[in-house]
Amino acid sequence: MSERMIAIMKTKPAYGAELVEVDVPKPGPGEVLIKVLATSICGTDLHIYEWNEWAQSRIKPPQIMGHEVAGEVVEVGPGVEGIEVGDYVSVETHIVCGKCYACRRGQYHVCQNTKIFGVDTDGVFAEYAVVPAQNVWKNPKSIPPEYATLQEPLGNAVDTVLAGPISGKSVLITGAGPLGLLGIAVAKASGAYPVIVSEPSEFRRNLAKKVGADYVINPFEEDVVKEVMDITDGNGVDVFLEFSGAPKALEQGLQAVTPAGRVSLLGLFPGKVSIDFNNLIIFKALTVYGITGRHLWETWYTVSRLLQSGKLNIDPIITHKYKGFDKYEEAFELMRAGKTGKVVFMLKD
Asked: Cβ(343)–Cβ(322) under 8 Å?
């Protein structure tokens, strides 16, 4: 193993990132070193690349970016048990304390002292990465690296879609970005029908169709609520899944969901949102879930089994694969322009 490696690093507090050569890190107590086989770009990585207001308040350059990964363990630090060299793994990004009120009740996904791997620490946009052993997930060999790296965002989609019953339910999904597309795949694999998708981008509407959406709506040109009511014989959808973070989409979805229906909210809004709670939520007796992270480790088991089942149609979602990191700038700019699904860097020999 070489002592030097290539990595995508946020080197300074400004737009962009740099491809650098750095030392291969050494695992300390409770850590493992993995050889990265595949790693994918998340919306969080894009925010760091763009150096938006959130990134400026959270990221401390210089720092290696990235947190979605599939890799192979090549070295185990002192005190690590149950993980061996050669294990094929992915990583849960929420580093939890295990001691706070939430953790002691088993609600690790909302740990009050959470640190984010690849945000508060160096990440995995590199040939090798050090990972907390407590965050390692062992993958079945049958799941290819380009799928295994998607398990973290796929967990977001699973918790959003499966927060309540979904089989045989009519569904409206607002937003067909990478997470929304994964949500379509999970809903279809879980027996939802019809799956209706509202998305302004023609590129993403076409991807939604390829993934399995039964109906797609352009909210800039069509009346979303009217279209949903026509499709559902005036009843509205049983389940509304919000992935876009657009206030207008939220309002349309709440109008389009049937009374006593279910709402799951994953998209992050740009600021405070004004909603008619009385008429759109309370009088409709809606059940509303806020979704953050993934349940540790219950959701990971669900995600792994869905991937192993072969029922998830995620090939169309992986629109771009790059060998190595050389074209990282192209990858980020395409993602900024909304011209991608998931983007994966492949480092497997």
From this structure: yes
Structure tokens at 42: 């998340």
> DSSP alpha helices (H): ranges in 247-297?
247-256, 277
Q: Tokens at residue 52, please?
A: 């938006």
Nearest Cα residue to 332 out of 345, 349, 347, 348: 345
Taking domain 4-150+314-346, whether its CATH number is 3.40.50.1000 is answered by: no
Largest CA distance in the chain: 64
Tell me the sheet residues that pair with 203.
none
**Residues forming the active site:** 44, 47
Per-residue buried b or exposed e for 140-149, using 16+ beta carbons within 10 Å of the residue's own CB = eeebebbbbb
Series of mean pLDDT values for 10-residue runs along the chain (349 residues): 94 98 98 98 96 94 98 98 98 97 97 96 98 98 98 98 98 98 98 98 98 98 98 98 98 98 96 96 98 96 97 97 98 95 91
Tell me if the pTM is above 0.85.
yes
Domain range list for the chain: 4-150+314-346, 163-290
Under CATH, to which class is 163-290 assigned? alpha beta
In this chain, the answer to whether the domains covering 4-150+314-346 and 163-290 adopt an identical fold is no
Name the token pair of 246.
């657009």
- Mapped onto helix, strand or coil, the DSSP state of residue 81 is coil
